[in-house]
Amino acid sequence: MTDEFGRIVVQDHRVGTQGYSPRLSNGAQYDLNVKVVLNVDPAHADQLTNRGERSS
């Protein structure tokens, strides 16, 4: 499921989950790794999230 911005929403995330493999309606599948934290200067965190990196 996606939100109003087209982002994939992960409901009921469990700590320790190392990744997700969502499959889109067009058949494309992506392997997404989960990071505990984004080790980056907060002023540049938006650059990482724009590349698809997320923290739990």
What do these coordinates show?
The chain has 56 residues and is mostly loops. The chain has one domain (1-56). The chain has one helix spanning 45-50, and strands at 19-20, 32-33. The two termini are 18 Å apart. The mean pLDDT is 75. The protein has a two-stranded antiparallel ribbon.
Most strands sheet: 2 strands, antiparallel
Roughly how many Å is the radius of gyration?
12 Å
Number of strands: 2
The helicity comes to 10-25%
Overall mean confidence score, pLDDT: 75
How many domain units? 1
Output the strand order for the largest sheet. Answer: 1-2
Quickly give the structural class.
Answer: little secondary structure
β-sheet strand percentage: 5-15%
Number of helices: 1
How would you sum up the global shape? Answer: globular
What ranges have pLDDT less than 50 throughout 5 or more consecutive residues?
Answer: none
- Termini separation (Å)? 18 Å
Report the order of strands and helices.
Answer: EEH
